[in-house]
């Protein structure tokens, strides 16, 4: 009787499924551990990807070049009138003063980023999505994220006040609420006018924290930055590419450290799985012997083991990845956020919108499923070559 | 000739001593023969059966089934031979304990085309060995004799040309033994070939036209 190869594989898959079910305690334990390892790897990868892409979004709002004043290597306020000196430099289309600082709220233990911009710059912020209201236009108006509003305990109110350095209070009114979609960018930001920010931090007139420069031709950014640094040797001139690189280095270190720890966990699991697959019990040897004298070939036993591993790894991959998505999307990746976000522990909680792409899936699959298949299939050869007369 | 053994030999090492389990045996079995090999424990009967069934490789000599040498073919040929041409009945419990009786019975059909009547065929054979009501129980819930009857039924599931049986009625009660031997006779009358090794002389007497051989120290005497 001619056997249809597809039918043969379906039969073997059927037997593999029943075999897995028959040893459900042992296989269930392996599945649970494997799914947990994939959950850890998936969460880490998903969270780091989400944070990295969010950091990219953050840079989208940064000027092409940022100029800061340095004294003894420390940042100090810079005179806004330097903008006039930049006006005649070839390649620069616009320069604007900014006040970018941090405000620590003792009462709530939160660290807010205060961003003061000119009216023109606020008007040009087309990339920021508002959940409700509008961007600040009048004196004392601010835009905040839902997390900042919650941290300030505003409830239904829109007015609040912050302490100035002399402990007098500066009053503000929330005019708009940033969308949660841009939480990584706006999650801790209080956006206000330049004058309000200067008043809050009690900065001298005409002084700002940095100057943002826009360059007409992106290819010329480095050249223009070099020219600015030449003209103002007392300043630090940062291009967007340099800031991105700094983010990547800091983030890459954290991400790499975490990955090494998780890969060590995966390696331990793979060794355990390999050990399990190679150490056959007497009962399993007997079963293979019986299958052999009933007509199963060596390749059939290998196929059986392959299907068993595929089912376990496939299920673990689906379960682990689904849990990882839930972890990042609904629990903000709480398990790894302190490792990856680091300094931001004082920031108001930020919510993340994970984006899963094919490359991430392939990466997690390559890191988890493929090593598992290799670790279980190769030792399976030992069981597959058990001779039919083993049981005689 | 359906089965031809020429100068078949197999030795084992036990406690530094070489044991000649099968010592240059010649045997021809034609289609429809019922051959019984009698002999005491250790006479080499089971090893001979394993060699003919392609479970054990010989040290020398050959086993030909349908004129083809078992050991000159590959694993695929031998597996197919064990699955389609030969039905095995062993003296040990050869059921998989985590499969039900019916699942054990249908195991050799895993490589056949899917047919609707598999289950019916399995149930029919279970009825023939008197265990139709045990289809969904596990081997551990059966007595040794009942397990043996399941293994016997399984040997017939693929309608093999040859049945190789090692002490098939070893732990059966007299009545069940009679039923099983009657079943053997019926299949034999339909053209199935039997090679049975046993120390039970009554088994040989129960079959019409049975060819009886005696084995001692790995040789026919």
Description of the molecule:
The complex is a heterodimer of chains A (392) and B (221). Chain A has helices spanning 5-22, 24-60, 82-86, 119-123, 146-151, 183-186, 194-201, 221-231, 240-278, 282-293, 298-331, 337-341, 358-384; strands at residues 65-71, 74-76, 78-79, 92-105, 110-117, 130-133, 141-144, 159-163, 169-178, 189-193, 207-208, 210-215, 235-239. Chain A is an alpha+beta fold. Chain A has two domains: 5-57 and 247-391, no CATH class; 78-208, no CATH class. Chain A contains 13 helices and 13 strands. In chain A, the strands form two sheets. In chain A, strands 1, 2, 4, 5, 6, 7, 8, 9, 10, 12 and 13 form an eleven-stranded mixed sheet that branches. Chain B is α/β, with parallel strands linked by helices. In chain B, the strands form two sheets. Chain B has a six-stranded mixed sheet with strand order 6-7-8-3-9-10, sandwiched between helices. The model of chain B has no long low-confidence stretch (mean pLDDT 87). Chain A binds chain B through residues 1, 3-4, 7-8, 11-12, 14-15, 18, 22-23, 283, 287, 290-300, 387-389, 391-392, and chain B through 46, 50, 53-56, 75-76, 79-80, 82-84, 88, 90, 92, 94-99, 103, 107-108, 110-114, 154.
